[in-house]
Amino acid sequence: MSWPRPSPAVRELIRQCAQIVVNARAEWLDELDASVLAASPTIAADPELAAAVSRSNRANLFFWGTANVRDPGAPVPPNTGPEPLTIAREVVRRGLDAYSLDAYRVGEAVAWRRLMDIAFELTSDPAELHELLEVCSRSISSFIDATLAGIAAQIDAERDELTRGTHAERRETVALLLDGAPIPRRRAEDRLGYALTGPHTAAVMWSDDSDAVARLDRTAEAIAQAAGVAHHLSVLASTATRWLWVPGVIPADGAAVLGAVHPPEGIRIAVGSTAAGPEGFRRSHFDALTTQQMMARLRSPQQLAFFADIELVALVTADTDRAASFVDRVLGDFATAEPDIQDSVRTFIAVQCNASRAAARLYTHRNTLLRRLARADELLPRPLADNVVDVAVALDVLRWQGR
Final residue of a domain: which of 247, 274, 308? Predict the structure, then answer.
């Protein structure tokens, strides 16, 4: 493709555009992420993959922008850095098709609209504007085409690597079990080195850091030890996600598990239910995935969550906008009340609205608790006694949001 050099005046305009792109406002980046994730529910539902796409969006903007600051209007080479290559690895390890990369085209459209806004702010000269937009359109389209070609090549290489060896066999066998395929139980057990009889508890461990495999391995081992089992099944689902099954129960005491496991900073853990047999193997895993997705959806700051603790919250927050409306309607000003007042109400509800037991559990005087409950009634749209269930649910949503 011939690539004519822009006029000096337009080169300077491109440089100014690129400088603005390099220093993109936070709201522009949020708009880009939201549009890309809305176009691909598969990506949006996976917190690790969504975070990787967000990093890649920013890396591509910065890459194109800095290239045009250095040499305005010149061809921009493909971005073959760690962020887009991480996308390639994740697409393969999750068994996704290349259609997921269509999200890049959505990102291209959003970036182009933003760049047109910038261009119209920089010049009103028709000739300059026409040349500026023509050059930038060709530049962005060529850059995205080349970057996608590089990702596609990396996907082929990753797929070839993962189709060899025991990891691929385990991953394939797990996929068959999760899909409910009629694979004989003993054959599956032989390939996994894990018995499918008896109870299972599944966990999903992940990190936003794409280079976290070793830390995830250590966390999986520590959880198995905390569960008191000698054997477990661990599968690398992606570069920063590990699936775990233990033949028994992971203690449902979050503080005890965190104390025993000491997961590194940045490692998150979602634990499923405990259930028996091949069906239990599947159900526990899907419950762990539901827990993971809820933590991601609410951007929960908590490092560990059990399905048994979040099942209702997961249902309530499936539609985040309606969940936010529910919390605002039920709690009103109480949503921003002091933590000790909210904790007192949570505890009071947890002990079946018994003030003496709640005070004892909070290590506070009963009169202090009653004053806090009275203050809660002042802030709530309806008295607590008339709306206990809804308040309990709304407070649980706040707790997982870290509010």
Answer: 308
